[in-house]
Amino acid sequence: MKTYPFLDLGLANKPIEDELKKAACRVIESGRYLHGEETHLLEQEVASKCEAKYCVAVSNGLDALKLIFRAYKEMGLLHEGDKVIVPANTFIASVLAVSDNGLEPVLCEPSELTMNLNPEKINGLLDDKVKAILPVHLYGTACWSETLKQLAQERNLLIIEDNAQAIGAKASTRGLNGTFATGGLGHASGISFYPTKNLGGLGDAGAVITNDEQLAKIVKAVANYGSDRRYHNIYKGYNCRIDEMQAAMLRVKLSVLDNETERRNIIAKTYNQHICNPLVIVPHIFHDMVQVWHQYVVRVEKRDQFREYLADKGVQTDIHYATPPHLQPCYYELRDSKLPVTEKLANEVVSLPIAHPITVEDAVEISKIINNFNA
Ligand SMILES: *Cc1c(COP(=O)(O)O)cnc(C)c1O
């Protein structure tokens, strides 16, 4: 029986194995393993991809988001106890970045159509303590709207994007800086280069992107022991640096990102055209945006039966995410939040295979298998 792996990173990296090895040799021979040319070039390339001016490459995606909040505190724009609106249906790192900085996460329900922050639900959460919003471009679909833009402009809220899942995606309306690419829409954004992400390294890495020179400088300093120059520390900083080896791997991956995104788009379209089963809700394709399909997520009420049925047929699936942050033991204080849409999605979402080496033919076959599911 043919099997369809959910994700096999070794196979996914196979087509560029030679380039990766060459880049690794280049770094080994350079004798420079931190603060070098690869990091510098990666920063330029990622900034340009996000249509923004500055990029500071760091240790991982969670650190990127944490550094942004910390830098805004250093700038006096955020203070301990301020509230930040965060989607309730996100990977827990989005919420961790907020609470880690002594800020209070305010969880907001998603829209069932976009599975992203529902802009209509934001107004009811606003009060004088809300100082920022953290939209997450979940599964690779931009979370951006005129409403968000107006909130930023009229109520002076900071918009910090969690772009961990959406590099290369585009919104349908312009961001605060007049551009469309996610990561450059708000005041600052964090990205993750975790190996399973669309632009994934061979280890941990991430980046902060912004058009604000002062913010970029503070992030860079805080991420390097808080020093603005050698042995001169202006902040009580951390070590959140990226290394040259990872930067070099990521530059190779970035050179094929557009192809990979195109491939994911074709497979998503194939699934949407071929899946026809009243028990399965497919994700919406927004023709006025560029979606990058970090995950292709369907919704099924009888999820356990569906996943078991697919596993029997050789189709591996995953769940992103089965337990929302407010139901995790570490966020006991958020446990009583009323988030019915979030909980419904958490109970129904299933991610289908979409990464390389899944082909269009595979997607057609998987769709046929799905169409024969009747619980
Ligand atoms: C992966 C991810 C993060 C965290 O990134 P790491 O590099 O794993 O620290 C944050 N937010 C979202 C939405 C993610 O998917």
Structural summary, described in words:
Helices cover 37% and strands 13% of the residues. It has 13 helices and twelve strands. The two termini are 22 Å apart. Helix 7 (146-155) links the parallel strand 4 (130-133) and strand 5. The strands form three sheets. A seven-stranded mixed beta sheet has the order 1-7-6-5-4-2-3, sandwiched between helices. A three-stranded antiparallel beta sheet has the order 10-11-12. A two-stranded antiparallel ribbon has the order 8-9. The relative contact order is 0.17. Bound molecules: pyridoxal-5'-phosphate (PLP). The site of pyridoxal-5'-phosphate has 15 residues, from helix 4 and helix 5.
CA-based shape: globular
SSE succession? HHHEHEHEHEHEEEHEEHHEEHHEH
Mean pLDDT: 97
Q: Report the sheet-strand fraction.
A: 5-15%
Overall structural class, as computed from helix and strand content, comes to: alpha/beta
Order of strands in the sheet with most strands: 1-7-6-5-4-2-3
Parts with pLDDT < 50 across at least 5 consecutive residues: none
Oligomer: single chain
Q: List bound small molecules.
A: pyridoxal-5'-phosphate
What is the CA-CA span between the terminal residues?
Answer: 22 Å
Number of helices: 13
Biggest sheet record: 7 strands, mixed
